[in-house]
């Protein structure tokens, strides 16, 4: 492992302890350094700052860089005795590499070494991690050297020979200095996803421009777009009024747009074939329970069939309704057989229970009442039919409970 030649294992176990426990301990101590055992962070594809920040819990508290083995070893043992994790290097280049990988808080640094000098190492340390606290240890303790070292960023200056209490005291102060630098370091807030901004007028304008563009692309003019939109908007308001619902314009237009999309789906299902007009209208009737004006106008526009022709078909067949229909259709028979068997009384009872006349839909759009002239089961006369079920001569109480149940069913569905 280049740069780590001077790395020594702490003597927590005997050096030749080859037991599983001994090997595990060695692995635990070496693992952080092995993880980052590459010559250069750039080869990992990350910049130096990211590399340093991503190193897990520091692999060393102190790195001792000194070409004198006795000093290195002495410092390491003294620091480990105090509970610090210490790593040693015998020259400046190895020391810089280990500092890069081991992420120490304090670096003990000799000034005069073969290869690059301690002053040069001192200059490079802030580039590795500006929080590192360098302490100079030198045998040339001149005032000039001390001043120069301090100017280069040394936190303390110890002259050899120094006693271990001095060393440990300086390292302790260095650790506090590192803590203060760490606390003062600006934190980068994680880039949280911003809440989606509310829809603004600008968004609507942008959509409008896109609509103009789409309109122009099919060869239509902008004035035609404006006219069509105004027509549809007034259709929406008309539709809302027809339903007797209190709706603001925005909601009414939204309902209308939803209806037109539904019409498009039905037309697509029938491949926009004009010959399928009756089936298309039946599908639309099934979707809406009636055929609103804007639905028929949209069919007319999409299939290029005159609106008059579409209305002609819709008026002709009983299956179509041009007025809003309730959720349930009640048909009361006033054919001859039913008429002579108290059919009119039954019709009158139904009207009084529902509060509507024949041909009307109640305000809640639940029931539509219709009169018919034979339901084909005269033996049961007088007869009524609710959706698909037939009822022969129901009493007033039967009607009340039947319609109450229908309302309840609808609420629960
Ligand atoms: S007349 Fe009423 S069912 Fe036939």
Order of strands in the sheet with the most strands?
A: 2-1-3-4-5
* Beta-strand percent range: 5-15%
The overall strand count is 9
- Number of domain modules: 3
- The third-level CATH topology of the largest domain is Rossmann fold
CATH class membership of the largest domain: Alpha Beta
Largest sheet: 5 strands, parallel
Shape: elongated
Tell me the distance between the termini.
Answer: 73 Å
What does this protein look like?
The chain contains 16 helices and 9 strands. It has 413 residues and is α/β, with parallel strands linked by helices. It has 3 domains: 165 residues, Response regulator (Rossmann fold); 96 residues, no CATH class; 85 residues, 3-Layer(aba) Sandwich (Glutaredoxin), CATH 3.40.30. Strands 2-1-3-4-5 form a 5-stranded parallel sheet, sandwiched between helices. FE2/S2 (inorganic) cluster binds next to helix 14.
Give the SSE map:
Layout: H1 20-35, H2 48-54, E1 62-65, H3 69-81, E2 86-89, H4 92-102, E3 106-110, H5 118-128, E4 133-138, H6 143-151, E5 156-159, H7 164-184, H8 201-217, H9 222-242, H10 249-269, H11 277-288, H12 293-303, H13 307-316, E6 328-333, H14 336-340, H15 343-354, E7 367-372, E8 383-386, E9 389-392, H16 396-412
Parallel strand pairs: 1-2, 1-3, 3-4, 4-5, 6-7
Antiparallel strand pairs: 6-8, 8-9
